């Protein structure tokens, strides 16, 4: 049944014509290269996150007609090319299939996570194959996410402070790829978990100093990126300054009271 759905989806994927910037093959107008970020979210963990530069690409893929591994050439900066560059740096395993009947590529698996891969460009879901999307300077971020659902959605996370003191409260907001707030998403911070309210917000406190990766997950969504928050001790100098100011304020109040009594 899964294979039938896969074939049907690929039929739609490769026959749908949508006007989306930079998405069609164009062998006459080729960009020199593209530099941007690519994040790969597997079923249980982040597989890779970093910056790559891609121009043209030679990639090995299994030809489903010949059942042989063959080399293919993509003469422009593509999402598949960016993925390949990430695999070289990150040294993670993958399988790519080439479907001759659609003249398109399919990411079969990454690090053993098979078949259920979706990709976004700046959180937009293109309806073209991963080898056909041509990247240009208007594109910033690629997200590949494993999600056992044909309705693909992804989480985004924001924090209002990147550096806080111990036990200082900071706010986290979680949205989907359309910037709609996501309720009841699980936010991970240190060893604790929090849940977003109807506005997609959660308030967090961390009692131990250190650097923490804050991220969100929810069923039927690709997990969010990980945001670094530094938790530190309050400065002893600041504490002394506050103490001195409080003493000075008390002295001023005493002087004011004495003056009132004399009057």
In the CATH scheme, the class of the largest domain would be Mainly Beta
Strand fraction:
35-45%
Number of domain units: 3
- What is the CATH topology assignment of the largest domain? Ferric Hydroxamate Uptake Protein, Chain A, domain 1
Order of helices and strands: HEEEEHEEEEEEEEEEEEEH
Rg result: 26 Å
Structural class: alpha+beta
Q: How would you name the oligomeric state of the polypeptide chains in this document?
A: single chain
Q: Give start-end ranges of low-pLDDT stretches.
A: 1-29
Structure description:
The model is unreliable at 1-29 (pLDDT under 50). A hairpin with a 4-residue loop joins strand 5 and strand 6 (104-110). It is elongated, with a radius of gyration of 26 Å. It has helices at residues 2-15, 79-90, 236-262; strands at 34-41, 46-54, 57-63, 68-74, 94-99, 104-110, 113-114, 117-121, 141-146, 155-159, 163-165, 170-176, 186-189, 192-195, 201-204, 210-217, 227-232. It is built from 3 helices and 17 strands. The protein folds into 3 domains: 2-146, Ferric Hydroxamate Uptake Protein, Chain A, domain 1 (Beta Complex); 155-232, Macroglobulin (MG2) domain (Immunoglobulin-like, Sandwich); 238-263. The chain has 263 residues and is an alpha+beta fold. The longest helix has 27 residues, at 236-262. The strands form 4 sheets. The chain has a 5-stranded mixed sheet with strand order 4-3-5-6-7.
């Amino acid at each position: 049944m899964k294979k039938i759905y896969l074939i049907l989806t690929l039929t739609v994927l490769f026959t749908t014509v949508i006007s989306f910037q930079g998405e069609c093959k164009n062998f006459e107008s080729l960009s020199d290269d593209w530099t941007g970020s690519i994040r790969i979210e597997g079923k249980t963990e982040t597989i890779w996150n970093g910056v790559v530069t891609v121009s043209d690409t030679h990639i090995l893929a299994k030809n489903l007609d010949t059942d042989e591994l063959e080399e293919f050439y993509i003469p422009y900066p593509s999402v598949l090319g960016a993925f390949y560059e990430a695999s070289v740096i990150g040294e993670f395993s993958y399988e790519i299939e080439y479907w001759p009947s659609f003249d398109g590529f399919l990411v079969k698996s990454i690090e053993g996570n098979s078949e259920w891969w979706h990709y976004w460009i700046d959180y937009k879901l293109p309806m073209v194959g991963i080898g056909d999307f041509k990247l240009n300077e208007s594109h910033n971020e690629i997200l590949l996410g494993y999600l056992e659902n044909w309705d693909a959605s992804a989480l985004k996370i924001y924090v209002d402070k990147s550096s806080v003191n111990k036990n200082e409260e900071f706010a986290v907001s979680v949205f989907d790829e359309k910037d709609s707030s996501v309720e009841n998403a699980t936010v991970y911070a240190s060893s604790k978990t929090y849940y977003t309210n109807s506005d997609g917000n959660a308030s967090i406190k961390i009692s131990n100093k250190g650097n923490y990766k804050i991220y969100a997950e929810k069923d039927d969504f690709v997990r969010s990126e990980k945001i670094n928050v530094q938790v530190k001790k309050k400065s002893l100098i600041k504490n002394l300054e506050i103490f001195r100011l409080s003493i000075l304020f008390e002295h001023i109040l005493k002087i004011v009271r004495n003056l009132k009594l004399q009057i």
